[in-house]
Amino acid sequence: MRDSIVVRPITVWSVTPPPSLVTTPIRAAHVEPKPGPLPPPTNRKPLVSTTSDHTTSAVPGIDGRLRLLLIEDDPGDAFLVEELLAESGLDVEILHARTLEEARRRMTGRIHCVLADMTLPDAGGLDLLREVLKLTGRAAVVVLTGLADAHLGVRAVALGAEDYLVKGEVDGPLLARAIRYAIERKRAEESERRLVEARIVSRENARLERGLLPVPLIDDDSLVHHARYRPGRRRALLGGDFYDTVQTADGSVHLMIGDVCGHGPDEAALGVCLRMAWRTLVLAGHTGGELLSILNTVLVHERRSDELFTTVCMVTVAPSRRSARLHLAGHPAPLLLNEAGVNAAPEEPAGPALGLPVDLVDGTLWPGIDIELGASWGLMLYTDGLIEGRIGQGSARLGTDGLVGLARTAVQEGASGDALIDTLVSRVEALNGEALADDVAVLLLATRERT
Asked: 226 — phi, psi (to 5°)?
């Protein structure tokens, strides 16, 4: 037998209705006066949609009309639902499905709420509710049935329904309110679910990416190592930039910073691959142009696109700590901080970025540059994300010269070590007018006297 909405004689309440006629939904119980049911339905075409003549806003945050899918096989009950909602003043568009199969066809991502009976020709009970919940996605589900069973209502809510209403015990305002509340609860649940998922993913990414960031291999108390990493990806810890520092058995300290073109997890993975390859090659005794030639081969074989290239700046500090040899592969020159002030290291001679076909590459493509460091010094290696920010409202970029000016000012103000890096990044962002879009990596190696 089909469920039906109970029709009782109209009663006019002068004060307050008796407590026996208040509603009994399982979640978010509603207590409202019952003005009496509507007259029995007359012959009328099946329900397609309805809008109240005296509309009110449905749910905050929903633009336009609220869209409701009514799953009800009884035309009379469907008509009464339409009338109740029209009476409530809710601005709602109703799509009517008489079977579960029809509901599957009518369900779209534009539906805000599903009002479902629990007895249909092709399904019924909790099995029906499970199928409805599968197809609704982000839409709220409210059960409207003639089965006044509290235990069934609890189980329905436990499965995922937002509310359980009994036909004959609801009026227009109560039904409209139940729909509004169900949509808000569903929205809150979805927000909480996304937040939990984002936190889980963020923690997993944090553990992975922190594990992939390098630990400098330095055994020299006269040197101090500082590094900062700011990936351009939202909520990421690791981007396409990479860096490393390794001290070898002869006492030399090797520094490297690189930038894989592009942004995202693929570029980050390639950056990690190149960093690990670089460290392995250094520990195996490779240096200079020979090392960059092998690193170029690794890049060519590991990249996902032939257009992908990588810039690299590599410095080898001599065991005496008073000189260094610089190799540039399409990368900005580092800053040298010493008794002469703050200056950019020479940019020539330099070689191309990595990514050339292997058969066109040999070690001579990347010549070295000898640098005198002095007794007290600092070497700051950085990626181009630090110098490509805008200065003012125009299209002009900061560039290496602009970074040198900012660094000189910061050093004169007494900044050094981590404070120097943080000051530079914050002032570059201030000139840019917002956070830098590109990945930013900064590596500072300095004698202890400079910190």
From this structure: -135, 145
Instruction: Quote the tokens at residue 3.
Output: 């469920």
d(Cα 406, Cα 427) in Å, to the nearest integer? Answer: 8
Pairing of strands 310-317, 323-329: antiparallel
Cα separation, 307 vs 319, whole angstroms: 38
CB atoms within 10 A of CB 8: 10
What is the model's pLDDT at position 234? 54
Domain-ending residue, one of 138, 157, 192: 192
Cα 414 to chain centroid distance, Å, stands at: 38
Domains held by the chain: number = 2
Residue 200 lies inside a defined structural domain of this protein: no
Element holding 255 (H helix, E strand): strand 253-260
Say whether both 230 and 180 belong to one domain: no
291: buried, middle or exposed (CB in 10 Å: 19+, 13-18, 0-12)?
buried
pLDDT tens sequence across 25-80: 434 444 444 444 444 444 433 344 444 444 444 455 565 688 999 999 999 999 99
Same domain assignment for residues 234 and 178? no
Contact 379, 333 (CB under 8 A): no
Per-residue pLDDT at 94 exceeds 80: yes
Domain that holds residue 159: 19-192
Nearest Cα residue to 160 out of 197, 123, 114, 196: 114
DSSP 315-333: EEE-TTSSEEEEEEES-PP
Residue 199 located in a structural domain: no
Please tell me whether residues 177 and 222 are part of one structural domain. Answer: no
Same domain, 161 and 296: no
Token pair for residue 348? Answer: 């020539």
What CATH number is given to the structural domain containing 401? 3.60.40.10
In whole angstroms, what is the distance from residue 57 CA to residue 277 CA? 61
CA separation for the pair 152, 105 (Å, rounded): 27
Helices (H), 262-355: 265-283, 288-302
Is 130 part of a structural domain of the chain? yes
Which run of H or E residues covers position 129?
A: helix 125-136
